Amino acid sequence: MNKIKAFFLVALAVLVAAPAFAETQNVKVSGSIDAYAFYRNNFDLTKNNDAGSVPSTGTVPGAVHSGTDSTAQQSEADEFFMTITQIQIAADLTDNVSTVINLVNQRDWNANEYGGATSGASHEFDVLLDLAYVQMKEIFYSPLTLTIGRQDLVFGRGFVIGWNPQDPNSNTQADEFSQLLSFDAIRATLDFNPWTLDFVYSKITEGSLNPEDDRDLYLANMNYKFAEYNAVAEGYYFGEVNRVGAATGSRSNSTHTVGGRVQFDPISQITLGGELAYQFGDYFSSTATSSRDRSAWALDIFGEYRWDSNWKPMLGIEYVYLSGEEDLSTTSSGEYGAWNGSFRLPVYGWIHDYREGYFATGSSSDQVAGQNQQHVAIYGSIKPLDDMQLSAQYYHFWTTETAHSTITSPSSASLSEHIGDEIDLLLTYNYTADVTFNTYADFFIPGDMFSSPNDAMATQLIQEVKVTF
User: Fold this and answer.
1) Which residues contact 352 (CB under 8 A, 6 or more apart)?
2) For residue range 412-437, what is the model confidence (pLDDT) as tens digits?
3) Cα–Cα dist 174/155, whole Å
4) To pair with 209 at 20 to 30 A between CA atoms, which of 127, 227, 300, 376?
5) How many angstroms separate the CA atoms of 284 and 332, rounded?
């Protein structure tokens, strides 16, 4: 009798569950494994202090560490390994509904500390959530697509928004290679081909479950694709309201960005484009300081030429302007002109772009990269073999506003406007359709803004093996 009851219970469970399983039309499982080997030398730009790189929150040693080899670090370089593993599941359901989940583990191999501070080694094998969203097409209204949950947000070339790197458990030293780039967001897309309208709300930081200590993003983007010349025009508003660190309910560190982008191919071998953006809002450095009006600019102009040749050579040139602020004192009440590029996607130098953001230098007068700078970049690539490509970028950086020997005092001595130069080389070899080898060689040469002993050339060599499935 018990067996009969068990049989009917199982049969009933199958009948109840069958309709739920039948709703799934298609499931795709994919993923990747990225293994890196790093060599980094003089990221702190300081000579002979036995430190390869120092976290931006750390202190750069000013002299050679004392002690014997058994009790002190005696290397100007860092060597370590890192692996990033991803598993993604995408499911198509009925009525134009789909879901995506992406899980990530990113870890330095058995690394217990970085820069003398204990890291999250106990979390080395944690699995983290990168993507988790549901997408509903033609919901309520035919052109409308609604995407809710943890998702990637990239608009245009990512000049304003596209990058949100995270390392919540401090498992990696090279956080710039993090694959956790997503936003918790609600996105509504209206597709009126050739017009596309996007409206996004994203929660970056949730404090004490009230709106007075949060960090929120708002975005409206309009894109138009022309029928000829592979041309596109785009206009956007991007708002960041950051109340983290403010006195509760009193004010916000707000950045409002308006801008536009155009890009087209006058002939099939040439691409030209430009983007201009302006920021306004309020800035304050701490709860003890008065607010300052923001007024900042950013400009990106580029051109590329592609030769019709077996080696597929390409050459490009780009100019980028990111406004800066000369007076960074906490007592100033004047306009604040430094560009806020917290979510910018493009990398302007694999070493320079993270100076004082991820890595500290021995200089006490250099500002965080990504603001108060201009640069000209010359870049190109060739494919000597069908499965091999060589890419190179050269950057020349200089300041927009005068930098000073005491960073918070505009009355202190002025520094040279030459920040430095960087050369980045990348060799890509596609061993198979699923396996790729990437070899990076990056060199940052400090300019006259830096002085001895804090003007050593920083170098980086990386070997990456990437497998996708």
Assistant:
1) 369, 395, 397, 419, 420, 422, 444
2) 999 999 999 999 999 999 999 999 99
3) 25
4) 127
5) 10
Residues with Cβ within 8 Å of residue 216, at least 6 apart in sequence: 201, 202, 203, 204, 240, 241
Domains annotated on the chain, with CATH: 24-468 (2.40.160.100)
**Amino acid found at 129:** L
For residue range 75-99, list pLDDT tens digits in order: 778 899 999 999 999 999 988 999 9
* DSSP string computed for 240-294: EEE-TTSPTTT--EEEEEEEEEEEE-SSTTEEEEEEEEEEEEEE-SSTTS--EEE
Q: Of residues 52 and 138, which shows the higher confidence score?
A: 138
Longest CA–CA separation in the chain, Å: 94
The three-class DSSP label of residue 328 is coil
Q: Which two tokens stand for residue 211?
A: 């709106």
Measured between alpha carbons, how far is 38 from 108 in angstroms, rounded to an integer? 10
* Rounded Cα distance, 288 and 152, in Å: 36
Residue environment code for 370-379, b if the CB has 16+ CB neighbours within 10 A, otherwise e = bbbbbbebeb
What count of other Cβ atoms lies within 10 Å of the Cβ of residue 226?
12
Q: Which residues contact 229 (CB under 8 A, 6 or more apart)?
A: 264, 265, 266
| pTM summary value | 0.90
Alpha-helix residue ranges (DSSP H) falling in 110-249? none
Closest Cα to residue 72, out of 40, 54, 49, 56? Answer: 49
**Phi, psi torsion values for 68, nearest 5 degrees:** -85, 175
Structure tokens at 216: 């929120």
Q: Are 54 and 43 in contact, with CB atoms under 8 Å apart?
A: yes
For 228, list phi and psi in degrees, rounded to 5: -125, 160
Token pair for 174: 């090279």
Taking the C-alpha atoms of residue 82 and residue 173, their distance in angstroms, rounded to an integer, is 9
Q: Are 256 and 237 in contact (CB under 8 A)?
A: yes
Angle at 351 between CA 346 and CA 356, to 5 degrees: 95
**Residue 210, token pair as written in the block:** 């009230």
Joined together, the tokens standing for residue 323 give: 């406004």
Answer whether residue 20 shows pLDDT above 90.
no
